Amino acid sequence: MTHESIPPPAVAACRSTRSSGRRPNADYRWTARKAMAFLDLLAAGESVAAAARRVGMSRQSAYRLRTRAGEHFAQGWDLARRAGHARRAAARERLGGSPR
């Protein structure tokens, strides 16, 4: 999955909004770049937990982002998950395994 295949509003929805006067440390918040990398990892077949870990975030924060970021990000998430499932199924078939 490439960044071009995700609806443009999904990218904007991934940007954090500040609720206080303090600027949070970028390492501990979702950025558009982290969100896009997360979706790419889901599309590559990673689990939500593994994809979140690989971008330095938690599984729980990924699900919170899905709720907070809105419909476009949720659609990107769903597309990425379907692509990941298809990729894993194809790999299982190539290895002679049975589909789940």
Automatic annotation (TrEMBL):
<dbReference type="Pfam" id="PF13384">
    <property type="entry name" value="HTH_23"/>
</dbReference>
<protein>
    <submittedName>
        <fullName>LysR family transcriptional regulator</fullName>
    </submittedName>
</protein>
<feature type="region of interest" description="Disordered">
    <location>
        <begin position="1"/>
        <end position="26"/>
    </location>
</feature>
<feature type="compositionally biased region" description="Pro residues">
    <location>
        <begin position="1"/>
        <end position="10"/>
    </location>
</feature>
